[in-house]
Amino acid sequence: MKLKVVILSLSVFAYTGFTAQNIQNNPGSNHGNKFEQLGTILPTPNIYRTASGAPGHAYWQNRADYNITAYLDENKRNLKGSETVTYYNNSPDELEYIWLQLDENEHSSIKNAGYDTSSIIRPSTTEQLKVTELPIKDNGYGVSLEKVTDASGNPLKYTVNKTMMRIDLPKALKKGEKFVFKVDWNYNIGNRMKMGGRGGYENFPEDGNDLYTMAQWYPRMCVYSDFQGWQNHQFTGRGEFALVFGNFKVSMNVPADHIVGGTGECKNYDQVLTSDQLSRYKKAENASEPIEIVTLDEAKKAEKNHSKQRKTWVFEANDVRDFAWTSSRKFIWDGMRVTIPENNNKVMAMSFYPKESYGLYRKFSTKAVAHTIKTYSEFTIPYPYPVAQSVEAANGMEYPMICFNFGRTEKDGTYSEGTKNGMIGVIIHEVGHNFFPMIINSDERQWAWMDEGLNTFTEYLTEEKWDNKFPSKRGPAWTIVDYMKLPKDQLEPIMSNSENIIQYGPNAYSKPATGLNILRETIMGRELFDKAFKTYSKRWAFKHPEPADLFRTMEDASGEDLDWFWRGWFYGTDPVDIAIDKVTVATPNLDTDPKAAQEIKYQVEKPLVNSFEDLSKIRNRQDKNITFYVDQDKDAQDFYYRYDRGQEKVNTKEYTSKVEAGLPLDTKDKEKFKNITAYQIDFANKGGLVMPIILEFTFEDGSKLYDKSSAQIWRLNEQKVSKTYYFDKKLKSIQLDPMRETADIDTNNNLWTSNGSGTETSKFQLFKQKQEGNSARGSSNGKVNPMQAAGKS
């Protein structure tokens, strides 16, 4: 329904205090900095990163190409690897050394990052008790470096500092040069179900088999960037990774009955698959429904016999920042072809899963993979890679073109709706990470939210397109309320280092995702937001964006000043709590004569001059080269001449003007306006974070109207504002934020009803009572003033 607002002359309302001047709150002491520009909070734009949020004309980034061979020893649960790395220095700087990540040192008792946390006595059984080892002994995990050499085999000097390794170069690596080096290493693969972490193995005691997820398994180049230099912050297990793009060729030697999935495309399926499996794979390449490449029966059969033979799988991947793989004889494997409309890219969507997941993964996994890359392509950039894979591994973690998820049925094959939805949500989330941060390659070690938050937001959009009734836990504004209600000492700004966050899930995932959804639905609107978000994705695909690049691009591409939002939602911890403080209701006094004109007299007895003449005025008057405009008017010249010398006063001239207060109200007008009611709604910002004011008006006849004021309404007073509406029918209630779209933490102060309890006696009501009293004493010509007013907190 179209909002109908009737504008009346203020003189129609008998209460003289009801004026625009008095309604406007005095901004003076209530004005903070919520709407000030971020300014120096953001890094200064330069030739690498522009003020618009786009990469600058001199933007650069280094790259690294890898040629890796790996040997998986299932009996010893050990991984042995050898890599040749070609590192390209595209920076303007000379590099005397380079840094690599040794992430597997996370599992070492003596080589980990050493980031201790508090510990307390917990209830435990005697079996769990053990004497604290001091000094701590080596548990046998972590990277064992066998050899580090240059391309010719000459040893290189290197230093390992916990989870980081510095290689000192024989000579400085100049701009445009490349350096080739080799590393041989091995490590004992940990049981990730007990030790935690992303990479490792899971053992299935029922059949005696392992499922391997090989992640962070090779020495990886750190990022050297224009905004930070070397990103060599230690890996603690939480803050994820900052990695460079490059091309990979990886050969994995595994037991012959293992099935392997990995980043990129396998180049030798004809050598590692049976003829039947290869035939099914080729059929799946053109299928619109998932086809089993390795069947359930084949997987069950493979579980029973541990082959002593070995096979080598060869994978290649271009323009990726990482490489991960999985290996197990337990895998069922299915796949189908999905075409990305935006670039006509034909992608092989695939899933690998043990029989324990068959009832869920066979139905949903590959279809969810296909749906995810298609939907993300709509909202960001077209998916550029040839494959996308989901692996059921009882956890959730992402890598280019492959991710590890969970989702197992009960032993009888049944599952709950919650398990199904959880599995689909995790698959969408982890496959979605192909875009954030695998392609739009942010620094996860510093800014977890640029990885998890942006991805969780796009996950929410994708879940909605999967099933409009999908029970999303993150994204909708109302789902963040419980977190925003927490005491301030339990909250950190989103703009916090990933290692320092207490409430990691809400801070890195939920709050940024919710903020982006509020921007899209409530502040910017879908059209403006979607264009700006796609612009950011396109600008920074295959590059290294920082928060300022996102903030600036969103404003640059939309024409919206969002600094107030970044300041409040990302840099602050204030919640949203906007309250309807009071509603004042007034009806018009139709007996007031708006035709009566008010005469205003202006008398000019002397010119208006400053009380003090400053040095500039005196010098200008003495300057013969300056001609004043007033000198061109003789009357004016004489006027000022006489005044300046204190001569006779100038005869004053009297000016009058009539200010029309409104049109005369005849009988027809009175009939037209008799049902008009004014509602002044006073709002209080109790939470501190400004937001748009969204109102639902419900009238006594059951009809509804809606209105929204942008957050800019708080510019001149960040604590209190008022809005006045005129309706020709009676209001029953006013609901603030009816769709719970601003994450308001207290909805108890969001409703006003015309017959609610706690009604205050307003100035309008007091005025009316006074008029009625005068009428009763015969002092108002026997007329009762029809002004009616009521207020409610």
TrEMBL record:
The keyword Manganese does not apply. GO terms for molecular function: metallopeptidase activity; zinc ion binding. Pfam families: Peptidase_M1 (PF01433). Residues 370-569 form the Peptidase M1 membrane alanine aminopeptidase domain. Residues 746-793 are annotated as: Disordered. Residues 1-20 form the signal peptide. The keyword Signal applies. Keywords: Signal. This is Peptidase M1 membrane alanine aminopeptidase domain-containing protein. Residues 746-764, 772-783 have a biased composition (Polar residues). InterPro entries: Peptidase_M1_dom, Peptidase_M4/M1_CTD_sf.
